[in-house]
Amino acid sequence: MKKIKFDPSGICLSADDNDSIFEAVLKNGFVMRGECGGKGTCGKCRCLANGREELACRHIPAHDSIISADIFLHGESLSLCHRKLDYAVSPFIHTESFSIEIGEFRDYMSSFKAFFPDSSEPDLEFLRQLSLLTGRTGSVSVLFAGKRPISVCPDGGRISVGIVDIGTTAVKCLLADLNEGTVKAEASALNAQRRYGTDLISRIIASKDNLEDMSACIWNSVKSLFLKMASESGLPFPSILLIAGNTVMSSLFCGISPDSIRRIPGGPVSASFPFIRKEHVACCLVPAASGFVGGDVVSGCVNVGLCREQEPSMLIDLGTNGEIALGCSDWIGVCSASAGPAFEGGGIKCGMIALDGAVFHASVSADGVDLSVIGGEKPLGLCSSGVISLIAGLFRNGMIDRSGRFTERSSAVNGRLFLAEGKNGDIFIDEDDIANLLRAKAAIFAGAESLLASFGMSFSDLKNVYIAGSVSEHCMIDDCFEIGLFPPVCRDKIVIVGNSSLAGCLDILLDSERWIESEKISENALFVDLASEASFMDRWGAALFIPHTDDIYGELI
Predict the structure, then answer these.
(1) How far is Cα 456 from Cα 87, in angstroms, rounded to an integer?
(2) Tens digits of residue pLDDT in 12-54
(3) Contact between residue 124 and residue 131 where contact means Cβ atoms under 8 Å apart
(4) Which of 251, 335, 364, 456 is spaced 20 to 30 A from 207 at the CA atom?
(5) Global pTM?
(6) Of the candidates 433, 339, 424, the residue with the CA atom closest to the CA atom of residue 383
């Protein structure tokens, strides 16, 4: 057994004698860059091992080592709950009872059409389940998604439904009890695909040689979370999963190559995804709006009712692939501004997603920095809301300037500010971390402004601005205004909605009309390609400062 210390984070890990650095990182619940999955072909895991350049997936340390490389926490979070669901008259996922007599299931397709005349064509798994009813008599219960029959349910058995948000950085899930009408558990984990790259383009390129592995990677992450949630809650593993994700993640989950998205922005192989089975589990995916605006944003639009409003509003999903929707009941436009992983804790040396141990808020004063940690224990790292509040506090106190550089008022040494002693090493922030967050916020701001301009509108024309994404669950509105992340509108127009992707999937689960709405959004959304907007880069450059180059916020700050 050897000890491996990673610089600059200070994280220390244990490694078996025959483990490569890459394997040791994975075994300890962390992830490091490696688009080939550790096969030694991409060179992305190149690091300095005791001062010598090595590939982490090929280097087996002979003794305790110091490694210069970034690694990221691959933690899991799970909690039980009891959230009552409010079903509509016609829920999308529901059960129906049927009476059968002996001998009715001889020709399964004929019997299927007789019993389910309004249903979609069955898949082979459902026909297999029907075949098991041969010779039975009495009533059976059938689980449906819309008009599609999913499975034959055991008499009196409990039925669970899984809700999944597949993000570029994190996977988040809910487990619902269909019989009781409640959400019983929620869980999240870092997307294990992160080793193939932190952004969508890296994942698309990596999928050319690793499509099957990357598809299995997502499924195994999802399955692992639901196995744990089912065990903790006492529910069975879900019979059906309702899934939303960006278009690349949804494609990879289905085993479909996303390569055309990179080549023709806004043009995936298909905006809608096939109904599929993963190890007999039914999987239904919310349709996408374009190649870089996925089912997660479509689901979010359903949740906030964007297409049910008479006046135009905007939905901003803060994530690795910053997606923005603008519209009302008459029209909808969408765009994508690549923000990078900073809003999910990536690109920050002590960054992590919002799990136990993450600093989610920082109070800055002349006397120092006070950190608030999820779970209240010693900190493991900084999640994005913590970084946002820290930057805002440092700026208010004159410790960083408008470009994010430390001033003489700070106690920073060589561009690095020590914050606290953490579980795995010192917690700090440096000027590169600040620059990464400012680049991410600039992309979001410039994307929102460019989308409005393409429709001849300005921020003052908006009824509401809905802010979605995990970062919004912990962020303070004043901090976001301070750094220029939120659009310059009145505070009462800002509506924090958290994970609108999961919430929208729950809305769809409860109401068939919401599924129909998601299909209409997918079909009618107009994609605005920011890469072809000459003014986007000008807007992005102007937004790189705190809060902005121009005094567009006025008395809002």
Answers:
(1) 39
(2) 888 888 888 888 887 776 777 665 666 777 677 888 888 888 8
(3) no
(4) 335
(5) 0.84
(6) 433
